[in-house]
Write a structure and sequence with these properties.
Layout lengths: L8 H25 L1 H27 L9 H25 L3 H8 L1 H19 L5
């Protein structure tokens, strides 16, 4: 059985930050560029959230352990980028929206990972060590 990972506070924080960046980006795009680009940002953000989920799931499924390893899961690890690029291209072409809005939405989980990493770094630097 594959661990869902949601019991890990860092993983929960990463998902929450990604959702927060999608919401903030939607409001920003709606204010600056209008509702069409705001929806394009959300579409990119949902692709980013899906990519984050797939990365989490695949990294847990191919990690060493007692479960059987499936070669197709390792192939999906790289193939998810092809799907992500195709998703972004199809969104821009089908909805005739700004490619920048979709691209910025696709970067939501990247921004969340950077903020989460900074949070962990600051937390570990400010922690008092008992020796």
């Amino acid at each position: 059985m594959i661990d869902s990972g949601f019991d890990d506070p860092a993983v929960r924080r990463l998902y929450a930050l990604t959702a927060g960046f999608i919401l903030i980006g939607f409001v920003w795009q709606f204010t600056v560029a209008g509702p069409r680009d705001a929806l394009a940002f959300v579409a990119g953000g949902l692709g980013s959230f899906g990519n984050l989920w797939m990365f989490d799931w695949l990294s847990r499924s191919i990690a060493p352990g007692d479960r059987t390893q499936k070669p197709w899961q390792a192939g999906l690890f790289i193939g998810r980028y092809i799907v992500l690029i195709a998703f972004g291209y199809a969104t821009v072409k089908a909805l005739d929206v700004s490619a920048l809005a979709v691209l910025l939405g696709l970067l939501a989980s990247t921004a969340a990972a950077v903020v989460s990493s900074l949070f962990e770094l600051i937390r570990n630097l400010t922690r008092h060590r008992v020796e």
